[in-house]
Amino acid sequence: MDLLRTRLALDLVMNPESAGEVSDIRTSTIYDILSKKIIIAQTEPRLTTARLNKGIMISFLSEGKGLSHRYGFQAKIINFIEDYQLVSSEIEPAILIEQISLPKPYNLRMYYRMCLPLDAGFQISLNGQPGGIIDISLGGALVGMTIDQEQESMFEIGQTFKIALTIDGQTYDLEVQIKRVVFPDKTNRSQKMRMLACEFHKRTREFEQALERKLLYLQRELRSRMG
Questions:
Q1: What stretch of H or E contains 172?
Q2: In the CATH scheme, what architecture does the domain 9-111 have?
Q3: Average pLDDT value for the chain
C-alpha cells in the first residue's frame, strides 16, 4: 500500500538522532511526489539553508479500517525552492527532500518532552546518586544533579551508565547516555549543580508502556486544571 500522497499533513522531527533532547517538531504538507524525491511546503518558522543535506524524520498519520496509524521515515533536505508553482496562479516556497527509508510504524510521542510537576510520582538516581527530573519523554530526560568536582568525569557528554527510574513506586533499571551537559549559571562553572540531557537506552516494552501511560495521565490532568 502506498502511504504517501499529495496534501498529506506531515510532522518534521528536526534532530531525530538525539531522542532525549528533541523539541523541534514542525508541520508541513506534501505538494508533489517524484519517486524518492518529495516536494513539501516550507515550514513555519521557516527552515534555512543551514539545514541542507541534514537528516530529518518525517512522520504522518494514515487512515485504514476506521483507525489512524502513525508512520515515519528518514529523509534528507536537498534543496529549497522559493517559487514553487502550486497551481497556475499560486506560488509558494517549498522544500525538496529525499526519502532515505521506507515508512514504518512510528511513535511521535517519543519526541515530546513534558515538564513535570513536583508531585508527579517520579524518582531517579544515576549511578546511585539521586537527581531531579526537569522534563521527560519516552526517549530521555533532562535531569538536575549536584555533582562534586571529583565526579565530573563520570558525567561527561557521551558517557553511558546505569540509572534507576521509579514511576509511582515501580522501579525500572535502564541505561542512559549523556547527550548534553547544561550549567545553570554559565558564568560560574565551579557550581556543583548540573543539568544532564540523557537518552534512554535498552528500554523495555514494560517501561515504555508504564511511562507512556503516566505521561498521558499527567497531560490530561494538566488540561483539566487549565479548564
A1: strand 170-182
A2: Roll (2.30)
A3: 82
